[in-house]
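Sanity check

After download, print the first record. It should look like this:
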Amino acid sequence: HEKLTYENITHAKELSIYLEQGNKVLDALGYTDHSQKHTAKVAVTAGRILKKLGYDEHTVELARIAGYMHDIGNSINRVDHAHTGASWPSSSSATGALRRKILPPSFRPSASMTSTAARLLIHFGSLILADKSDVRRNRVRNKVPETFDKHDRVNYAALSSKLHIDRHKNVIRLEIELDESICSLMDYFEIFMQRMLMCKRAAKVLAAVQIS
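Expected structure tokens:
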């Protein structure tokens, strides 16, 4: 079978249908945008993180693929969507062939589980940082500021968001510029503290022991 790359999975029709359906589910539930614009941004950022940290191109490419597919579980249910997405798709489904093409032999049960776990942690670390750093105003779908929930408010207040990776200083730094008339810095941390803790742990996995 042809080996799939990040470039050609972005044109895979079946995968696009799952991603679009998941975004529609979240729209109906009042969540921020989780369209292919978001998944593509996460994919590119996850790849950039690992490339900056000196990982090989194959590892970088797998991070891009994981980033693009990370929200696919939303097409079934928002609740436990991470677990649903991780087990997607079943081996009997038509998309099982897609998954088998994407995953190299080293990610399959016959491989060394220690090696596989270590490599998975690398990809998970870059994916978490890429996903949680995608904070921006145009992800907000609600057009009525008075009815913003906490996630709408934080995203709408974000004037810019940049993730800096310094391999030599062993630092990953997230810079967010907030309009504090919409959301104060304290409000941001109150709302996103769990996300920031996830990012801190993810950075440690990537040997970035400092994060600010």
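If your output differs, re-run the checksum step. Summary of this record's structure: Residues 109-114, 208-212 have pLDDT under 50 and may be disordered.
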